[in-house]
Amino acid sequence: MRTGRSIGAVLLAAASTIVVALTSTAQAVAAPPAPGRDGVVVSVQKNRDGTITETAYTPAPGVTAKDLAARLTARGVPNVKVADEPAMTTLAAACSSGTARTWPSSATCFVRWAYNGYARPQIYFIDHSGSAWPVGRAVTKWNETSGIDSVYRIPSSGCPGGGIHCVHVYSGNYGSGWTGLTSRTLNAAETYYTGATVKLNTYYSGTEAEHWNTACHELGHVLGLDHNTSTGSCVYAYRSSQRYPNADDFNLLERYY
Ligand SMILES: [Zn+2]
Predict the structure, then answer these.
(1) How far apart are CA 141 and CA 4, in angstroms?
(2) What would the DSSP string read from start to end of 68-89?
(3) Residues whose CB is under 5 A from ligand 1 (ion)?
(4) Ligand 1: distance of its center to the CA of 20 in Å?
(5) Residue 153: domain span
(6) How far is the CA of 4 from the centre of ligand 1 (A)?
(7) What is the CA radius of gyration of the chain?
(8) pLDDT at 200
(9) Alpha carbon of 53 to ligand 1 centroid (Å)
(10) Span from the CA of 237 to the centroid of ligand 1 (angstroms)
(11) Residue 35 maps to a domain
(12) What is the mean pLDDT of residues 138-153?
């Protein structure tokens, strides 16, 4: 009896070792990036007044960054670049918090919105988008950041002015290639945002969660965030069903505001 049990235990242990070995081998082989997960697409335009407009495109599912860049260039978008997602380890600690990171300009780690006399910068999102896009709910979540106020506003209420930054959010059929974009204009010194616009693309269908994800993602770019390496954040580089930022996104914003 004892001997039988021992042999059984040995066999079981051997089988476990084989399973562990097989699993380790499988994990050691790096999977190639899925289509549309091979980089980020940005166009950078120098304006006549010295300001710079950067536009970041969220690639549509199944569209590679290279393909998206080629399509945009063919449509006349200037200076389209494909950038690799840099490894978090290459970033200065000041430019990242956990899985989140800032959207860096060439001059600084973080480009911010001016306070203009307020205790916190005031970002009013003027929502021109269709009802399929949960922009209001995305704004409400981002407003949990303590250092910068995100306010939702319908177009008929207009932009109040007086130092309040108004960011217009549109939806429309903008053609294939991307699901959402954010254009941010920086002052010539690349230290402050002077304006931003968001476009949500109705060309691709999506679930409510995916639409919410796109709205949350683009609004995160407006506030100054670059992509988050965690799929648990809506600012992960590619479309998902994640509707919220993660704690690192909030922590990073609060470091700068
Ligand atoms: Zn993005």
Answers:
(1) 62
(2) HHHHHHHTT-SSEEEE----GG
(3) 56, 58
(4) 37
(5) 40-256
(6) 60
(7) 22
(8) 98
(9) 15
(10) 5
(11) no
(12) 98
